[in-house]
């Protein structure tokens, strides 16, 4: 079946950031490359799997499909994450700021909730644009492939797996969350939102 062979992308954020050391970013990037490699490997196995033995209890097809969703989630989540790190933090401007203020009680309330969600999640927190309800929403996932919002696109992704912060902060995840926002490039988040809105306009 046709499937593009993935190549790991490069990101300017793979370096020392404010409050996040170069080793953390470099080790984290190696994990991302592993997701890329495993996506390609699993897809290759899917091309040759015996579909006649498929069943819901256990089958090679089921196992590969489940693991492919985890690997692809690892690729896409990290590509969002790395792409919008390396900025100067602060508050958003433009359409992102406008829509956060529209869809949440205030920017400050959204930020408070997002940070708390980062403490509650086991894997990821996303700010996503929902195409059905035409609004921004915050959601969390406990793994690369859990709790997706159907017909919604993440525009901001915060990794809260321990590998994202343990070298720098140990168990102090809240300090990492502060560092994440201090390095966030809101211009990239704005571009992500613009792409989501443009996609919605095309499909109306």
Automatic annotation (TrEMBL):
<dbReference type="GO" id="GO:0004784">
    <property type="term" value="F:superoxide dismutase activity"/>
</dbReference>
<dbReference type="InterPro" id="IPR019831">
    <property type="entry name" value="Mn/Fe_SOD_N"/>
</dbReference>
<keyword id="KW-0560">Oxidoreductase</keyword>
<protein>
    <recommendedName>
        <fullName>Superoxide dismutase</fullName>
        <ecNumber>1.15.1.1</ecNumber>
    </recommendedName>
</protein>
<dbReference type="Pfam" id="PF00081">
    <property type="entry name" value="Sod_Fe_N"/>
</dbReference>
<feature type="binding site">
    <location>
        <position position="159"/>
    </location>
    <ligand>
        <name>Mn(2+)</name>
    </ligand>
</feature>
<dbReference type="Pfam" id="PF02777">
    <property type="entry name" value="Sod_Fe_C"/>
</dbReference>
<dbReference type="GO" id="GO:0046872">
    <property type="term" value="F:metal ion binding"/>
</dbReference>
<comment type="similarity">
    <text>Belongs to the iron/manganese superoxide dismutase family.</text>
</comment>
<feature type="binding site">
    <location>
        <position position="78"/>
    </location>
    <ligand>
        <name>Mn(2+)</name>
    </ligand>
</feature>
<feature type="binding site">
    <location>
        <position position="163"/>
    </location>
    <ligand>
        <name>Mn(2+)</name>
    </ligand>
</feature>
<dbReference type="InterPro" id="IPR036324">
    <property type="entry name" value="Mn/Fe_SOD_N_sf"/>
</dbReference>
<dbReference type="InterPro" id="IPR019832">
    <property type="entry name" value="Mn/Fe_SOD_C"/>
</dbReference>
<dbReference type="InterPro" id="IPR001189">
    <property type="entry name" value="Mn/Fe_SOD"/>
</dbReference>
<keyword id="KW-0479">Metal-binding</keyword>
<comment type="function">
    <text>Destroys radicals which are normally produced within the cells and which are toxic to biological systems.</text>
</comment>
<dbReference type="InterPro" id="IPR036314">
    <property type="entry name" value="SOD_C_sf"/>
</dbReference>
<feature type="domain" description="Manganese/iron superoxide dismutase C-terminal">
    <location>
        <begin position="92"/>
        <end position="192"/>
    </location>
</feature>
<feature type="binding site">
    <location>
        <position position="28"/>
    </location>
    <ligand>
        <name>Mn(2+)</name>
    </ligand>
</feature>
<feature type="domain" description="Manganese/iron superoxide dismutase N-terminal">
    <location>
        <begin position="20"/>
        <end position="85"/>
    </location>
</feature>
<dbReference type="InterPro" id="IPR050265">
    <property type="entry name" value="Fe/Mn_Superoxide_Dismutase"/>
</dbReference>
């Amino acid at each position: 079946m046709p499937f593009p062979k993935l190549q790991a992308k490069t990101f300017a954020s793979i370096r020392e950031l404010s409050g996040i050391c170069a080793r953390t970013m470099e080790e984290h990037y190696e994990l991302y490359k592993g997701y890329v490699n495993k996506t390609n490997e699993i897809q290759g196995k899917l091309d040759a799997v015996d579909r006649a033995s498929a069943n819901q209890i256990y089958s090679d097809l089921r196992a590969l499909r489940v693991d492919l969703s985890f690997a692809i989630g690892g690729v896409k989540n990290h590509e969002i994450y790395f792409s919008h790190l390396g900025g100067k933090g602060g508050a958003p401007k433009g359409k992102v700021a406008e829509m956060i203020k529209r869809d949440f009680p205030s920017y400050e309330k959204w930020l408070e909730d997002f940070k708390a969600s980062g403490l509650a999640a086991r894997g990821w927190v996303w700010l996503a644009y929902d195409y059905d309800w035409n609004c921004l929403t915050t959601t969390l996932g406990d793994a690369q492939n859990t709790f997706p919002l159907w017909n919604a696109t993440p525009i901001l992704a915060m990794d809260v797996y321990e590998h994202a912060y343990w070298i720098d902060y140990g168990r102090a995840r809240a300090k990492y969350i502060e560092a994440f926002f201090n390095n966030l490039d809101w211009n990239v988040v704005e571009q992500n939102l613009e792409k989501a809105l443009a996609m919605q306009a095309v499909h109306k």
